[in-house]
Write a structure and sequence with these properties.
Layout: H1 11-18, H2 24-27, H3 32-41, E1 49-53, H4 61-65, E2 72-77, H5 80-89, E3 97-101, E4 113-119, H6 128-135, E5 139-149, H7 153-162, H8 175-184, E6 187-194, E7 199-205
Parallel strand pairs: 1-2, 1-4, 2-3, 4-5
Antiparallel strand pairs: 5-7, 6-7
Helix pairs in contact: 6-8
Protein name: Methyltransferase domain-containing protein
GO molecular function, one term: transferase activity
Keywords: Transferase
């Protein structure tokens, strides 16, 4: 199991997101058609155990819920204020979700999840190869690890360059670089899309 390494997380980055949590849903947009397309790629059967990494204010939660019958969602973010907003939107006593405040490197991962999704958050992970290898320790055999954005790599990188010093160097890698990270983490890359509309990679654990 990978050793916890919280020193890899920049505390100023947490402050950046904490300070914007209450207005996040008003300053960011997520195209429903595009997010629905990403959800369709997951081919959820209804009983999956899902980890939503970098959940933010819970953008993906209703999309998972629309596909789940008996499954569950563990929603993780290192910004406690983002999690607080998500909790208000999706109370745990009314939705099949458990919220957790943690940076990804301090999560104790064991093989229990059918899906680990990184939607619109992967650029913010320092040491991306380590992020992939650590997170995928939480997959059951046959489970899927997904990195997804509903915009192109260039657009995402440009947004971060213009968003301020704290996130200006938070970039998506080239798709072939991400695929290599996945393969080194014992994943078969079963889907990839890298164009003007999407950046998506799906890996399946051996």
């Amino acid at each position: 199991m990978s050793e916890p390494c919280s020193k890899r997380i920049n505390p100023k980055q947490r402050e950046f997101f904490n300070g914007r949590a209450e207005i996040w849903d008003s300053i960011t947009t997520h195209d429903d058609e595009k997010v629905s397309y990403i959800t369709s790629i997951l081919e959820l059967k209804g009983d999956e155990k899902i980890m939503d990494v970098g959940t933010g204010t819970g953008v993906m939660i209703p999309y998972y819920e629309s596909k789940l019958d008996s499954g569950s969602i563990t929603a993780v973010d290192y910004s406690e204020n983002m999690i607080e907003v998500a909790r208000r939107k999706f109370p745990e006593n009314e939705h099949p979700v458990t919220f957790k405040v943690s940076d990804i490197y301090n999560l104790e991962m064991k093989p229990e999840f059918d899906l680990i999704m990184c939607y619109s958050c992967f650029p913010h992970f320092p040491n991306q190869p380590l992020a992939v290898s650590h997170l995928t320790e939480g997959l059951e055999s046959g489970g899927k690890f997904v990195v997804a954005h509903s915009a192109s790599r260039d657009k995402i990188n440009n947004v971060h360059m213009e968003a301020g010093k704290i996130v200006s160097n938070d970039f998506l890698p080239q798709m072939n670089e991400l695929a290599e990270m996945m393969e080194k983490a014992h994943l078969d890359v079963i889907f990839r899309r890298d164009d003007e509309e999407y950046y998506i990679a799906v890996g399946c654990k051996h």
